[in-house]
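Continuing from the previous page...

OK, I double-checked the sequence for Guanosine-5'-triphosphate,3'-diphosphate pyrophosphatase against my notes and this is the correct one:
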Amino acid sequence: MAPKRPKGAGAFPKAVDTPAPQRPDPDGLYAALDLGTNSCRMLIAQPKGSGFHVVDSFSKSVQLGAGLERTGRLSRSSMARTVQALRICQQKLKRNKVKRMRLVATEACRRAKNARDFIRQVKRETGLTLEIILPEEEARLAVISCAPLVSTKTEQLLVVDIGGGSTELVWIDLSSVPRRDRPASITRLHAGFHSADSPFHAAKVVDWISVPLGVATLRDQFNDVEDDAARFALMSWFFEENLADFAPYKDEQAREGFQIVGTSGTVTTVAASHLGLKRYDRTKVDGLRMTSDQIDKVIRGYLELGPIGRRRDPRIGEDRQALIMSGSAILQALLRCWPTDRLSVADRGLREGLLYAQMSGDGVLEDGPF
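Thanks. Re-ran it with the corrected sequence; updated structure tokens here:
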């Protein structure tokens, strides 16, 4: 005997009324796009308290500066890859109806002879207006992005942004700022590094420098050196030579009260290796503190792996195995000059700085701790 069919079987399920997720108000959205030597990155966010909430994002390796060291120009293939990425960004901006935005380009476009032609091509093909910013503004925005990671115990702060085409260093004296106010005082630098009307109890920029050597440009300088360890050593010492004009380079820095904040793919990759992560996890990396000895151990591990081993490492991979060594050479040079027990890893940078600067300028961020 066949089982009796339950009553109501086969009927359509009754619809359940659940509210659709509320879309953010386009009038409250901000966008920031960073077109660098290697990557194109964008964030769309809305202010939330003293920070912001990310609504949409984009990141892609476009290698805009490929061949730039040799020719002084952006190649057709590099520009085509970048325009394709920027089309996706334009679609995201349009879909979210973003009105407030800053779309900036950095070292590759600062150096390329045909950069202006490229900017016009981007405008013509995507409708986006890219702005080439000066090194000082790039450095200032990188500093602002790291404000939430600054310790209230820090008196001397070095912010390092290792990019594809350049590296920015900013040394800030926080000793006259009340402890509780030290992180927030960094955000106020959006007005400029040397503001004449800065109050006495404000963050003071001792010196800043933009070294025209990043992970891509430093690698290209020493491409002809075959030995892996020799190339690494040469890159590190060559980068240190370029720090001679940076005022704090001449002074020995006590570890007590000194903090370095490092923002770059190099620093986050080193942090992921230190933690032994099989898959990158931003929540574990951003804000992590490491000592000089811990970082040195990771870098020595990279050298022991060699190019083939680094390619097979899931945290590095085929595309980044050479770049991680030029970035590590920069990092090692900095820690040779200024050893620290507190290097804070920042998975943030120019995009976040652009957002903080826009929102702070509009007065939509709340005062208080991050």
